[in-house]
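Students often ask why we bother predicting the structure of a whole assembly rather than each chain alone. The short answer is interfaces. A chain on its own may look different once its partners are present, and contacts between molecules only exist in the joint model. In this exercise we take two input lines together and write out one structure for the complete complex. Read the inputs first and try to guess which parts will touch.
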Amino acid sequence: MNLIYMAKNGMHAAQSALNVVVNNTNNFSIPEYHRQDIVFGEAGGKTTPYGFFGYGVQVDTVQRANDNYLNHRIRDAESERGAIKGRLQQMSQIDNLFADDTHNISSEFSKIFVALQKMSNDPVSLPPREETLAQFHVLCDTFHRNSKTLDSLLHESHGKLRQVVDEINSSSQQIATLNVEIEKVYANTRSLPADLLDKRDALLDKLSSQTGIRVHENAVTGCMSITLNNGLTLVNRDSSNRLAMVPTADNPDRFEIHHLDAADNSIPLTAKKIVTGELAGLLKFCQQDLPSVSRSVNQQALSIAHEFNTVNKLGFTSDGQQGRQIFDYPQPVALINDNNISQTKLDVYYENISNVTSLEYELTYINRDENSPWRIMTSDGVEIDAHIQAGGEILFDGLKVSPAGIVQAGDKFRINPLAGVAKNITVAITDCREIAASSSENIEEQSNNENIREFLILKGKKIISGSTLSENYASLVGTTGTNTKQLVMNEHTNKSVCESLSAQKQSVVGVNINEEYVSVIMFTQYYQANAQVMKSAITLFDTLLNIR
Amino acid sequence: MRCSTLAMYQQNVNNISNAMAGVNHSHHQLTEGKKLLTPSDNPANASQALSCMHTLTGIKQYDIAREYASNTLGYEDSALNGMSGLLTNNLIEKIVAAGNGTYSTEKKTILANELQNIRDSLINLANSKNSHGRYIFSGYKTLSQPFSSVEGSYHGGNQAITQWIDDGLEMQISHLGSEIFISEKHGNLFERLSDTVAALKDDAEDARETLSLVLQQMNQSINYSMDSLGKVQTSVGTNLQMLERLGFNSDQNAILVIKNYQENIGSDDKSKIQLHSELFITEQALQSSMLLFKSMKDISLFNMI
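Now the answer. The structure tokens for the assembled complex follow.
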């Protein structure tokens, strides 16, 4: 009797084993699938004075292959990869923008001087003048083109940021839902559902590529909580917290990431707190890389415009008129902080362009005393002194700021003196004769080219922060190239690490179908063996029954 | 180490993918004809390449300046030669003849007319224009005729045109007519010539004394003008030589800069050869990765039992 029972158990075990093997074989192509192994155990037995008689085999468990330490390392490598990817994808677009070495800001600037030389040869003749005027337009167009690319790149980066934040929130939500399911199953069966665990691990990998996370998992019960690297909770068993992308109070074109917890508190995450993951890469690009390039381009536009305007105003046109400005550009804008009490604006003017820096400023009205009612901080965190004039105007770093009304204590304003110059620079003169070639108003001196010679000096003059325009531009291109190249090299290194870790993981959790095929053959024989035993047991029973 | 089936296929896919990317990059480089596609390929070279372009534009700018300068100086040179010829060969001869007290009134009239012709020719030359139609000897007032035909007074400017012809190098590319023909001490050559002509035609009794005084002043004026002319001719000659030399140096320089530029962006011949061999290598890598896959995919127990 026992034989039939034991054979039945054996066949049952073989069927279960085959089930697991076939499951492996069917799922082996799914990257997140962890191989499952059936674990048999002895089903106990009876120990008698004349020996031990076992009760056969039982299925102890189906073991899911896993290595948590390896998982941890893989997630870290993924976070690193996400950070590099987020930043590199955007940086390489700036790299491409600067790849044109024949039609760029520096080359179009240089061509102006070729045209000016022709004008210098013969200031009376109109074609060289037309050519010079046309080249001024080409330079402005080049600035517009560059500025537009940078603007749409910023826009695209913000779009990507939004998407990443949405995906993080979605993953957190899904993990929380899975947690509920997994805990329910454990409560009912004291076993963990391998397929749900696979799904959850896949979500964790995806989440870690988007932002660095720390995972706390109970291997027995399957309970899990996830925190950001700085400790703020993303998922706690069945509940998840959201991240949000919020415009900054002082500049609506800039964004920061907030963490919203269960009590609806909104904590801004500073750049120091977001270090890895695609989120970090994109943020670094939006807050550091791109503004730095924009500032350089704007500074180039402003310096060129200022220098040419100054020289033209010194000279006289073909009609004997004093020259006027060649280029038009907008005056700076002061952004009003959302939290300001008064809605007063500040008017900002360029007072001395040679002193304008590439810093951004935050002005706070503190009304401390008459001599210094304003506190002025630069984007580097340095406080600077300003000179207050009689009419309440503030002078600092080449700028003049004048309130357009009454300001309340605590009101804040943000000034980026270079914003929008490259985008909005235009040619103000309409007739090529307005280019002031002559140094005297005597119109009989038709070939007086002395002022053109002043223009020609600008080519080698150090007009930006102690460098010439071409030196400044070459340095900008070189820096961008170096940063991009560094990222490419980091990506390469990280890729090797990721590939190696992935191979290691696959060696632990992956399915080798040849192995499974051997198992199929083995368990089939196992089944056949037990079926034979059953046949023998039935024969035995029959023999017993047939005794008269 | 255990090798899962998925890992093996993934590895093969990665290999083929990477090899493909390598071939694409090689193709791209060869199509563009240079190694440096974006600044990140080689930031230092990219910076250098920009510098080279900047230098080349500068060379072009000065080439334009020098060409115009040569042209104008050339015109000036031929005008000056003409003037020199008239002064030395014709004028002096006639003035000496005019000093001859034995000439008859008729002869003196003929002489006066000849002097008038020489004067007109000289003024014509002084009013020369260059190929753009600008007066050469008027300084900045290039649309104003330097010397009036009748009185011979100077109406040109008082500043000579200069140009930058190289970095920090300025050159005077034309001279003022007043420099050559007018001086404080010796007056205006053309006016003196007019005076001489008038004196020769004068039949009055005291004409002889007036004539010899006028002739004296004439001689002084001529000597002054010949001196000035000589100086100006030398200056023009030296400048023309300097322009030629600078042009030659500049051409040499341009060749070096272009070579430097090509080396920096990898479009010189040596780089092109390298690119071709790299293409060969990357294509080989792609082919071998594909062959590997082909041999690997058949190795399975399922095919054997």
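Check your guess against this: Residues 198 and 311 of chain A are 71 Å apart (CA to CA).
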